[in-house]
Amino acid sequence: MYGIFERLPEWPELDMGLIRIAFKLNPERFHYMAVADNRQREMPTEDDRDIKRGHAKALGYKEAVQLTHPHNSMFKNQVDDKYQYTCEIKDNKVHGWISTKSRVGFWIISPSGEYRSGGPIKQELTSHVGPTAITTFISGHYVGADMEAHYRPGEAWKKVLGPVFIYLNSDSTSNNKPQDLLWEDAKQQSEKEVKAWPYDFVASSDYLSRRERGSVTGRLLVNDRFLTPGKSAYVGLAPPGEAGSWQTNTKGYQFWTKTNETGYFTIENVRPGTYNLYGWVPGFIGDFRYQNLVNVAAGSVISLGRVVYKPPRNGPTLWEIGVPDRTAREYFIPEPYKDTMNPLYLNHTDKFRQYGLWQRYTELYPTHDLVYTVGVSNYSQDWFYAQVTRKTGDLTYVPTIWQIVFHLPYVNSRGSYTLQVALASAAWANLQVRINNQNSWPFFSTGTIGKDNAIARHGIHGMYRLYTIDVPGRLLRTGTNTIYLRQPKAQGPFEGLMYDYIRLEEPSRA
């Protein structure tokens, strides 16, 4: 299945923020859902979610309900929410449903990410209660209104969305667990579809065959005080723009790959056009953009040779919190509530997908906010995964002020220190930074940022942002110092931030 979307320049302006294909399967047959090897289970029914009939209880937002009177008692008190089953684009190759009674599987296979929006780690919906199976081409999920979905007068646009493959399989054996065989077969079929991309059967001239495309090769190196290979980095071609602009791009095609252990990469099957080469490297902050435009022609093989990324840095590291990986996964993620848990995510690598984890902050810090002491605290235990509001009443919330306490044996009062703050998510938030006086006027503020809603939607990241903040040495003192991180927006439970990584650098010695 695929669609060719075209907009003529004389048409009026519009917003088109969501394009997807949705399948609603027979609820009498399909009860078992699979999204990944470790994300599959027997599912409740849509009728179980019916609040008006007393089958479920409303929770903090409309997509999440607690199943109070489900048809099967095994689901009692569990939470069902379609956002618990989202998946990053790079991993969203195959998902679907199985009828264990009919021994039949229904699968959506996405062999390429070139037609999707937002880059390889943008999260999208997959399958959820219905039984529903979805493939999404453009959406604002986990990014919000920052997605580029507005089409202005005079703007022409055309894009081939897909093809995606709808695959049905069946099990004729007497295996007691047909879901295992059907899932493994679907994964194998997914691998075949990926290898067959781009398909050779599409007759439209708008869909380009393999021989009508080009490739780009190179080697990524990182210059952070010394030169090292950019290993396991994500590099991609996307429409020209600023570094990181691929996160919000919906109108063009994107082509991504990962570098090997020595930084080499090959981006294959690229549609002819003009692109920027973008990327980021785990373990380093910031976004890479190659200085020259890359012009790909049909049949071309472009070798960029060595490309060097110099991540933001103004001086040696004094201290750091977290790991620069564009997520908040390494921080403290609390245990779920026993009466609103999803058993799928117990003892799971994705434990952040449980409902209501943000509420644990108020329980852990009922009167005073988080204080992190550099050299004493451990970010995996002492840094809550999200800076959220504190609940003080049924519908009342207050801002939170986190503190980073650190010791400096010497201060260069005439120098300029640097605070690097990388955010993994922001939702209707404003990060204000103060030093050594929490009642002073903030010397840095982001202003209101973010609508990615990753806190509510069980994401451990949304849209990445990096702030490089100059800290005059006169604000610091020899001995104990405190950085205050205040998030003043507090209308509800979901305004807040997720931090990726924080680092303080001393003045440059150059």
TrEMBL record:
Keywords: Lyase, Secreted, Signal
Catalysed reaction, written as an equation: Endotype eliminative cleavage of L-alpha-rhamnopyranosyl-(1->4)-alpha-D-galactopyranosyluronic acid bonds of rhamnogalacturonan I domains in ramified hairy regions of pectin leaving L-rhamnopyranose at the reducing end and 4-deoxy-4,5-unsaturated D-galactopyranosyluronic acid at the non-reducing end
Family under the similarity heading: Belongs to the polysaccharide lyase 4 family.
Cellular component GO terms, alphabetical: extracellular region
E.C. numbers: 4.2.2.23
Gene Ontology terms describing biological process: carbohydrate metabolic process
Native source organism of the sequence: Arabidopsis thaliana
Domain Rhamnogalacturonan lyase: 231-303, 317-504
Subcellular location per the Swiss-Prot or TrEMBL entry: Secreted
Predominant location: secreted
InterPro entries: Carb-bd-like_fold, Gal_mutarotase_sf_dom, Galactose-bd-like_sf, GH-type_carb-bd, Polysacch_Lyase_4, RG-lyase_II, RG-lyase_III, Rhamnogal_lyase
Name the record gives this protein: rhamnogalacturonan endolyase
MF-aspect GO terms: carbohydrate binding; rhamnogalacturonan endolyase activity
SUPFAM superfamilies hit by this protein: Galactose mutarotase-like (SSF74650), Galactose-binding domain-like (SSF49785), Starch-binding domain-like (SSF49452)
